[in-house]
Amino acid sequence: MKNRIKFLVFLLIFVISISHTFGQSIYFPYYGKNKVNYTKFQWKSYKTDNFDIYYYTEDIRTLKIISELAESAFKRISLKIKHQLSARVPILFYKTSTEFQQTNLYQLPEGVLGVAEPLLYRVALHGDMPIDELQDLVEHELTHIFEYDLLYGSPGGVVYAMSAPADWIMEGFSEYNTETWSSWSALIVRDAVLNDRIPELTKRGSLFSRYPMPRPPSYDFGHAMYEFIEHKYGRNGVRNFWQSLKNSPMIGRLNPIKRAFNLEPKEFGHEFKKYIRDKYKHFLLRDNPENYSITMGPEFPLNEFWFAFSHALSPSGDIIAVETFNVKDSDFDILLLSAKDGSVIKNLTKGYTLKYEHIKYEIEPSKGRDIAWSSDGDRIAFFARTGKKHSLFIIDALSGKTLNKIFLNQDRPSSPCFVPGNNELFFTGFEHGIHDIFKLNLGTKKVINLTQDDLYEKALALSPDGSQIVYSIRIGTYDKLFLSPVNNLKEKTQLTFGRGNTITPEFSPDAKTIYFSGDMREAFNIYSVSLDTGELKRYTDVRTGNFFPVQVPNSPDTFVFASFNKGSFQIFKSKLEGEVEKTVTLAKIEDEEEYQRFEPLLTFEIDKEKIKPCKGIGKLYMSGKPPLDAIFSTDGGIYGGSSIAFSDLFRDHTFSFTAYQVRSFRSYYFSYFNQKRRLQFMASAFRYTMYYYTPYSYMDPSLYYRLNYRDAIATRTISGANVGAYYPFSRYYRVQATFGYSNYAEDFFDPYMNKLMGGTTGYGFFWNGSNVSGSLSLVGETTKFKNYGPAGGNTFKIGITQSLPIAESFIQNTTLQLDFRQYLYIGADALFAFRFNGFASRGKNPYISYFGGNNQVRSANYYSLVGNEGWYSNLEFRFPLINSATTLLGQIGPIRGTFFLDMARIKLKGYPAQITILDYLTVDGENLPYLRKVDSVGSYGFGIELFFLGFPVHLDFVKALDWPKFSAPFKYNTRGKWMTKFWIGFDF
Amino acid sequence: MKRNRIFLILLIFLVLYSCKTGNYWKIKLELPVKTSLDISRFKNIVIANFFLIDDKNDFEINPALLEYLSSELSQDLDKNISTNNIALDNEELFQNKDFWKGQAPGEDATAFLTGSIEYTSETRKALIGKSKKQFDNPFPSKNRLASRKFYNLKMNVYFINAATGEVIYETKFNETQAYENPNQTAEFAFFDQVHKVKEKLFRQVLGGERIQQRYLISK
Fold first, then answer.
1. How does pLDDT run across A793-808, given as a tens digit for each residue?
2. Domain ends where: A589, A607, A637?
3. Which residues of chain A lie closer than 8 angstroms to B203, CB-CB?
């Protein structure tokens, strides 16, 4: 089932599947990072005609705004597409983006603005944006709800859906219904059209782009497609298109274009391309950014850096600091580039760090820069995510060493500006839902709000002497530039007027001119306005967009700026001549002057009597389509299972039931999970049946020749209930505790085996009995993952479980467990991976643990190393072979190689810490088997891993090792022939 | 077990063998549909008001219908399409040649598109045994009263030659649609149904294509 998420930058379409599988840990060996709920939301609800609005702010103006925006959007969309929704729409409104990311509905990465889901018709969004943009967002998400209603008929109808329309049909329609083209969307489309990179329509009607784009084409080109439909088939054409989607059978939805317009996708795509080329042909004669100069960078795919999100020129003018995306490391970095030839001087933030989660970026230039260079040339400032919010980082401009880190309470800080000659920094950010300008003292770390108004100030720049500040304010639906003295931001002088946006301002070195970007000619060009004469000059006439113009010091007509070209921002440096367009009269604005505010279509008053607090759990709903999981292990066992979950509207409370089966052994699990607060807790009841292979050679070595290990299969059934709590310290570390009762029943699966043992468990290590125990664990996962698995960092879990002496008959033991993994990334997707997993259980009834097979001890049979104490260790060198391969079976990849070395020891209570292995002795040319006891076993070899249909498939070539004496680790034996092992599962 | 496996393999082989192509090819042809009305002789199409039979709806049908039809006809016909608010008091007027000749005096090659509409709705209710909404509350009530809104659109459509006042083509439509959505409005449902009428009407009047499957035998 697809949920619709509107992204500012990169799109990730979620397939929601709630997995509550608690299978063997080998299949899902990661502990996971923490989702920290910093805020306890005190939800309140308010019903309007068509919506149930859920919010938690005290300010009733927020409720009024969101109610008016929602009802306005509903009226407009309903009349436009002539459809009435079958159910009310719950809107969950979060005041800030960081609070929105704490929602329990989904795991939302940074950049998500809103989400609409088809199961309950929920819309969740946040308010960190100007009101007119919030109206667009509401319209976008609400259109998705209309789409679900048209396609599926009612909330939850999606559960029965077998197919869904292509993304562009859904996202494009949502964008189309906003009736707005943001400058950013228009830029993406215009650039692609003029560079002949228009995405293609596939046979199945999906949009496909051969070239990288800042975001998937379904949004922007989807919007353009609908405008094309309206142009060619009239306003009713769009409605007819959706009628054909609505009325077509499930399979017919795969080709709605043929059904609606009697055109094959290829023909339709051809007509669309003609239309869109015609629409933008008047831009063809304008500047091509590549004519300005050689590219200063980034130069993907010539190097691994793609996209210049933000840049800052050094005071000397010969180095450019660029915030960019490192494609190889899948991370954001700050580079130093030569302003002479664009060569990469240094990556200041290379590698993996725990100081922050990621560097903050804004793709939309109107928000301003994200990095700043101090006037003394020594320091660079940027923002990065650290836990709940962001921190300001100041690093050494040459070495990248962190000089200062200041945690900020403001949301989405942007536009850092060092104050020349002062230990202060200006920036913009959200505070209590309002976007203002702030001043930060870098020594005392004190922050002062300099504007404290309801205007949306952004993209600021300081004059070289630090006495004046220029910034943009959202007036109505346009950004306009204003100038103020630094010591009094209430005193404003408006610099730009009329239609069009004017953004990314910058002072000239002599502070007499402001350079900025303006879209008065549709595309963003570089302009200047003289503060003395009011002369407005235009310097470029580009086809796409030029931003962040900075005059090079001591070079009056030379500028460094970012230009959007072929799907990304690149830096250029060029001598530009300005043409005077007109002279403006700079207007001093009186403090009490009313600025033009955005007004929604409908306005109404809030009835305070109808505001109700949300108490208790509330109504429960199914959380999603039950998933189906299947895993295949080296002993030929197939694991299959599914789960179903119910949760409340906010997913703070979840009830789930999981059932799975391995071979013929079934397990059930029921749980209640409360994740409303930072301390999360769970209550569960369960019945697990697991199996392993007992080391029968302990009882009677002669059995080794009459039975194989599969005959010694034993089962363990655990029934019980427990409660657990989990407290995250940060995204990476947490403490968790459990307390509960369980009953263990272990025995041989085959009664014949039991009879062989004389009717009693001569094995002696089966656990049968009841147990009341508590456990405490410390878990940490800083591991960074790429598409193939772990790529850096470490993971650990250390825990103690103590059984309580409730009664003499109860099981009693103390168990320690340690799981530690370290990943050392070398580069080019090659890394060393190390794991140590140890356990020790002592007491009257020590716990049995088992391992072996798969990637634990490859030479051992699956789960055949059994003991009360033991450990295994792995060292692997993993490297890429093929990134991606197209085969007859479909896309497979990446394909990776592994060199591995395993080692293990195990001990059963009452027995020496030795393992019996079967070896062969050559006597007179004949191989005679015999049993040998060794201290450790292990293996080495080479393996290949490939990803097929999302499953990691392994083929290992394994040679068995053993160490007769653990104290002599370099005296080992190899044993037997090379074995081939096949298994499906994730790397540790 | 082994015997069953061999039988299964043989069966699969036989099925695959039978699917092999013989000495013929299946081809699909798009053939033009013959129209019931030759509209090519008219340069102008004037969409006039429709006579409303027993209109109790809360929205204005004629403006919506005229705007819709003129927009759709403009897309598919390369002619002058216009609308005209001609007052119609009764259905007998459609057969009154003098009345229609007087509506567009002196205009050659003009045809009127008009007719009568009856648009009604009713709500039907029934008891159903079990709720199908499993996504909802896990403990739903057993018996539920389900209701559906039914909208019925009856249209008589006439093409009238403005020069002679004669009805040159007439056709009838009767569309009914049920909605589970209790919020569905009459106006929105009207558009759903008039879309179906338009598809059928345009096929009759403007033609289209139908697909026929033929077999081509080779020696």
1. 999 999 999 998 888 8
2. A589
3. none
